[in-house]
Amino acid sequence: MINKTIKQYTLFIFIFVIVLLPVSVSYAQLADKDTLALDILSSKTISGTAGDYVTVMGQIKNLTQQPITDITTYLSLVDGENKLPVDLEDWSAEKGLYIGTIDSGQVLPLNWKIHFVKAGDYSLTIIAIIANSEMPQASSVTHFKVNPKRNLDPGQVLPVALGTPMVLIFIMLMLNYLNLLNHLNIL
To answer: Which of 36, 55, 83, 113 minimizes the number of CB atoms within 10 Å of its CB?
Structure first.
């Protein structure tokens, strides 16, 4: 009976050391090392005017020797003036992008369409969260500026706004002048 119990413990330890320990170590290594490379590819082209729609292009690369599953990526946007995070729902940004599996060395594109809502200076980062991992992965920070939107276009609105009253005043003066000439029997 004791021999049988010792054999069972030995078998349990053997299975733990050979099968379970390497699996748990590999997951621990995934959490401790940089497993993904995240890059914002459109960092030089992110700019515009409030009201514009812009596509943020990025990519994710698996740096490990094994596939990684269950990854969620999303954008993080910070208002540089107020030093506060921006609610991306206001910016019409798409929700997080889910990646089921990314193979070793594989590179996948990441694209988000955002709507510039408010003028100012902003910082943008791509964040990736691997399921059952303790630490998120992040891209480098990209800084960009959103210019204010001009509501009056001087090339179109100002001439109409000033020209219409001037034309009406000129017509009224001409009618008044013609009426005066008519009363004086000059015409």
So the answer is: 83
Query: What is the reported pTM?
Result: 0.64
Per domain, the residue ranges of the chain are 1-32, 34-147, 151-187
Does residue 64 register a pLDDT over 80? yes
For the record, the structure tokens of 177 come out as 């002048």
Rg (CA), the chain: 33
- Cβ contacts of 90 within 8 Å, gap of 6 or more: 117
Q: Is 98 or 21 the better-scoring residue by pLDDT?
A: 98
The pLDDT value recorded for residue 160 is: 72
Q: Go through 36-75 and write b for each residue having 16 or more CB atoms within 10 A of its CB, e for each that does not.
A: bebbbebbeebebeeeeebebbbbbebebeeebeebebbb
All residues at 6 or more sequence positions from 60 whose CB lies less than 8 Å from its CB, including other chains:
36, 37, 38, 71, 73, 99, 102, 107, 108, 110, 126, 128
Q: Report the pLDDT value the prediction gives residue 5, as an integer from 0 to 100.
A: 54
Place of tokens 């497993």: 35
Helix, coil or strand: residue 149 = coil
Percent with pLDDT over 90 in the chain:
43
Closest CA to 72 of 41, 104, 36: 36
Identify the pLDDT of residue 185: 78
